[in-house]
Design a protein that fits this description.
heterodimer; A: alpha/beta; six-stranded mixed beta sheet; 24 strands; globular; B: two-stranded antiparallel ribbon; 69% helix
Chain lengths: 500, 378
């Protein structure tokens, strides 16, 4: 791929990206979230079309207009979220959409397909019964089906997007074996990841992407976790710039979390025995690669998710688990990751959304709503937090991302919280809005609000936090006081590189 | 290729223009059908309006048709407002009739009370039985997360068979066994005369049930537009996650809304026996064939779940149903009446789509492929 550029409204996802992968090679694309890895692979598989640049396959220029073009040219992809039909069998899923062989006219040649799927499975160590149905399979087995799908179509290039995110460590090791075997057959494997250890374990060469650009391509044999981390995280790393200096804080604990264990959506613990506390007015940042338990932690603290074990205390009092209303009355405010949909009801007015938590107290007379006072409250928030809306009656969904966030923040601050749980507060916002949001958070902390700041943006964490804890696979992998740690060390812990 | 795109805003004039336009389209299509079957469209339309609204006694007959679908329309609207699809107004109405008939017969056995006592008692009993019936799918939805569309729909059949059983297949309390004729041809016990609901007006007869329905509409509007309950319902309807995040008790709200919806449908059952039949009608060709519950869904959809609009639509649709009865005759088959009603409903509901979506005709982009020859993707 040469000089690939892809623009989306407002962002350049890929800016002049180039890399090449040889036959028989496992080539890793390494980068943080939002570095442009997924966009690049979507271009290579025909889902998106590049604005500039060209793709060559086996020395011939190609131009894909649909995923089917790419499939026909031998490019197979295993997406992060599987594209399988749950009630169908493995064999049926494998031939789904394949228009070349396996069937004549309308008739599926079931036996032949099953035999071929079984053969392929054996050859590459992808053992899975062709006749079992997808819903009966574990996540790891489903992934094997996705790989089989590509192999069945004679893919010569296989792209895997974050394939280990859903796997247990042993399964990941088995997957690496399969990938090596495929490379040994002369196929090209493109392995997308942000986990350093994995990349070093499986890849021959590594191309590092950052902010939509190719930074470098290095041989895995000469790279170390540390060198890759610094390529991945970027410029300041060489200076090893410390966190901002810590400031004096009162010795009053607002939030105490003890041995908190929370189940994830897929079952299994997403947060494992987390223990930490936040003092009055302190900002504690939670660093981690997406999917390492940050969301579940925030949801457990705010009552949206029930904790399996452990206790949460707010100003000394134990919080009832799994009850958002209890969390609200205990003084926990929440700025959720998903602003529109969780934090706000999209079709309801700005006014309604401004009072969505407060209508119970003070804004009603008996069972009736005090519409006048609701409006006043909303107008106060709109004015104080500079929410730009045509009318207070405008549906929330018509507001821009920055104004939505200001509305959520304003509403949460007006509730005079003791603890504020903020997740990805500036994701998708422009520079001006980011600064405003940061200013609001600092102001809240100066008023004594204890803040848990979950963010994937290390610069943001560094700019705001008094302390940073790093979550890796649901455990607190490390904790740094302001001024104590370097970005590099944090980045290493985030990628699970504790030992290296 | 035609594509539907969701409108980001819905201009106010559309909500008037689209229904009027749909009606014009419907009448145009109907004209073709009528001409093809050898009828004069113009005179048919005149007869339709006359039989439904302007003729002598037409409005009174229309109000009789409108009363039950006013209740079931409100019942559907109440639940649909929270995205809770209670399709069971049909069965809840039967159960309301059963409960209302029971209390009326009980009071009759005791020779008790004036008509006012009967009306209040029948309304309360019918609302309670309707609500309890609706709570079956409600509880299942709230605690087991079953699909309320399926469960409430299926319970309609159960309620229908129950109704038939009470009158035809058992010697239940509701069945008239006093005379030999009644034992040979099963029918419900007649209500005491005091249980007949009064009517108002002389030139246009207004049944009490319709007035009660209007009252319910006002109460529902206040409930949904002016109370905490209504606020919570609107948040849950728009985003259940946001509701949970804001600390709302969504499970309780599901139960409350289902019960409310069932109670309103049940009131329709009480009105049916109090206003019109004065006995529990168990025949599969009677109350059950009228399909008031299903018509109510159409009423609610056309009214876009607004209680006041439900009142209006119920009267219009009642007129259409009533005119249908008048129109059909030797030279005008009932099937043709059904076709006309179907076309009007089809166009009206189809027009709804245009309020929420716009239709676009995107130009086909030429797809170029160089490099390897690839088969045309269809």
């Amino acid at each position: 791929m040469r000089g690939i550029t892809k623009r989306f409204p407002g962002v350049v996802a890929n800016d002049d990206v180039s890399f090449e992968a040889a036959s028989g090679e496992v080539h890793a694309l390494l980068g943080e979230n939002g570095a442009g890895k997924t966009t690049l692979s979507n271009i290579l598989t025909g889902l998106y079309r590049q604005d500039e640049g060209e793709i060559e396959l086996h020395g011939r220029p190609v131009r894909f207009t649909s995923p089917r073009d790419a499939l026909d040219a031998g490019v197979g992809m295993v997406h992060q979220h599987f594209r399988l039909v749950a009630p169908f069998t493995v064999a049926e899923n494998v031939v789904l959409g394949d228009h070349r062989h396996g069937h004549r006219g309308f008739v599926l040649r079931g036996r032949a397909i099953e035999r071929r799927v079984a053969e392929l499975g054996e050859k590459y160590g992808l053992g899975v019964d062709p006749r079992s149905r997808i819903w009966q399979l574990s996540v790891g087995e489903q992934q094997r089906v996705e790989i089989l799908k590509a192999l069945y179509r004679d893919a010569t290039i296989l792209i895997l997007d974050e394939p280990t995110a859903v796997l247990a460590p042993q399964e990941a090791v088995a997957l690496f074996g399969t990938l090596r075997a495929m490379a040994g057959e002369g196929k090209t494997v493109i392995f997308i990841s942000h986990k350093l250890k994995e990349v070093l374990a499986v890849a021959d060469r590594v191309t590092v992407l950052r902010a939509g650009r190719t930074i470098d391509t290095v041989a895995a044999s000469t790279a170390t976790a540390r060198s890759l981390a610094s390529l991945m995280v970027g410029r300041e790393i060489d200076e090893a710039r410390p966190l901002e200096q810590s400031r004096p804080l009162p010795d009053v604990l607002s939030l105490e979390v003890e041995e908190l264990t929370v189940a994830g959506d897929r079952g299994g613990a997403a947060v494992r025995g987390a223990t930490f506390s936040i003092r009055e007015g302190e900002i504690v940042g939670v660093a981690g690669v997406a999917g390492n338990g940050q969301r579940e932690l925030a949801e457990a603290l705010t009552g949206l998710r029930r904790a399996d074990r452990g206790t949460v205390r707010v100003c000394g009092k134990v919080l009832r688990s799994g009850d958002p209303r209890a969390a609200i009355s205990a003084g926990i405010a929440h700025v959720p990751e998903d602003r529109l949909g969780t934090g706000l009801a999209p079709s309801l007015s700005v006014t309604s959304n401004a009072v969505i938590k407060r209508y119970r107290r003070g804004l009603s007379r008996g069972p009736f709503l005090a519409l006048g006072r609701m409006r006043e409250t909303a107008l106060a928030i709109i004015r104080r937090y500079d929410v730009k809306t045509p009318e207070p009656s405008t549906p929330a969904r018509n507001l821009s991302g920055g104004n939505l966030q200001k509305l959520v923040l304003g509403r949460e601050f007006e509730g005079e919280p003791r603890v504020l749980v903020v997740a990805q507060p500036t994701r998708g916002l422009d520079v001006g809005a980011i600064e405003t949001v940061h200013a609001y958070l600092r102001e809240a902390s100066s008023r004594g609000v204890a803040i848990l700041l979950v963010s994937e943006d290390l610069d943001e964490l560094r700019a705001l936090s008094d302390r940073i804890v790093v979550l890796y696979e649901g455990e607190i992998a490390g904790e740094f006081e302001a001024g104590e740690a370097t970005i590099e060390e944090i980045g290493l812990l985030m990628a699970g590189g504790r030992g290296s | 290729m035609i594509r539907l795109e969701r409108r980001t805003s819905q201009p106010r004039w559309l909500s008037v223009a689209v229904p009027v336009g749909s009606l014009i389209v419907a009448f145009a299509i109907m004209a073709v059908v009528l001409l093809a079957s050898g009828h004069d469209p113009w005179s048919t339309y005149r007869k339709l309006v006359e039989a439904g609204f302007t003729g002598n006694g037409a409005l009174s007959a229309t109000l009789i048709s409108a009363t039950p679908i006013l209740f079931t329309g409100l019942a559907a609207a109440v639940a649909f407002r929270m995205e809770l699809f209670n399709i069971g107004a049909e069965g809840q109405l039967y159960l309301g009739a059963v409960g209302g008939a029971w209390i009326a017969l009980q009071l009759g056995d005791r020779d008790a009370g004036s008509t006012a006592v009967y009306v209040v008692a029948m309304c309360v009993a019918a609302a309670v039985t309707g609500a309890l019936w609706a709570l079956i799918p409600g509880v299942l939805r709230a605690f087991a997360n079953t699909n309320e569309i399926i469960t409430s729909l299926m319970l309609n059949y159960v309620a229908g068979y129950l109704l038939t059983y009470l009158i035809f297949s058992s010697s239940s309390y509701w069945r008239d066994t006093s005379t030999l004729q009644a034992r040979a041809f099963p029918q419900g016990k007649p209500m005491p005369p005091a249980a007949e609901w009064p009517t108002f007006g002389s030139s246009v007869v207004l049944p009490l049930g319709f007035v009660v329905g209007l009252g319910v509409a006002v109460v529902l509007w206040v409930l949904y537009a002016r109370t905490r309950f209504g606020f919570e319902v609107s948040v849950i309807a728009d985003s259940p996650r946001a509701a949970r995040y804001a600390g709302m008790r969504t499970r309780r709200k599901i139960l409350a809304v289902m019960a409310l919806s069932g109670a309103v449908a049940g009131l329709g059952g009480a009105s049916q026996i109090g206003d019109f039949t004065h006995t529990l009608d168990g025949s599969p060709q009677g109350l059950q064939a009228a399909a008031f519950g299903y018509t109510g869904i159409v009423v609610a959809a056309l009214a876009r779940y607004n209680p006041f609009a439900v009142c209006l639509v119920a009267v219009l649709l009642g007129g259409l149903l009533n005119a249908g009865f008048t129109l059909q005759g030797v030279d005008f088959p009932s099937g043709l009446v059904g076709v006309m009603q179907g076309i009007i409903l089809f166009c009206a509901l189809g027009g709804e789509l245009l309020i929420r979506y716009r239709i676009r005709f995107p130009r086909r982009t030429r797809v170029t492929t160089d490099g390897e020859a690839t088969p045309e993707a269809v």
